[in-house]
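Late entry, evening session. Most of the bench is empty. Finally got around to the prediction I had been postponing all week. Sequence below, unchanged from the version circulated by S.P.
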Amino acid sequence: MTKRFVAAAQNPRVNIIGHPLTRKLGRRPVVDVDLDALYAACARTGTALEINASPQRMDLPPEHIAAARDAGAKFAIDTDAHSLTDLTHMPYGVAAARFGGLTSDDVINAWSLDRLEEFLRKGRSLRRLLASSITCVLGRTSLGAANEGA
């Protein structure tokens, strides 16, 4: 799986690697992946790692978040929402990020829209930016505005 994740991080159309452990708590174990290689690839390519706040995933856990942060990776927190009620899971992802030692500077969907767009454009084609429009929408939420001064 390491080669697949690293290749994804190097793909110019990929902005975020989603639930890199691929686990589902109590249902599916963690995949075999060299996380240090993945973190290094994400830091090198400017590809963020997802912090999935779903209670069924909690992927990445705080100890992995800290290691990825130390490698230079950035993060996106999301709820993995499949229904409106799943949107209420965001506090779990924020808590994992905090336990992992992150600040709003480490979390792309806590950035200003201008900074997020710059991150998405850096070394990337306009096509990649357009494919990332969902992330831009997240940058306009109250979460990003609330964390501006944090």
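Two things to note before I forget:
The CA atoms of residues 84 and 135 lie 18 Å apart.
The chain is about 45% helix and 5% strand.
Will write this up properly tomorrow.
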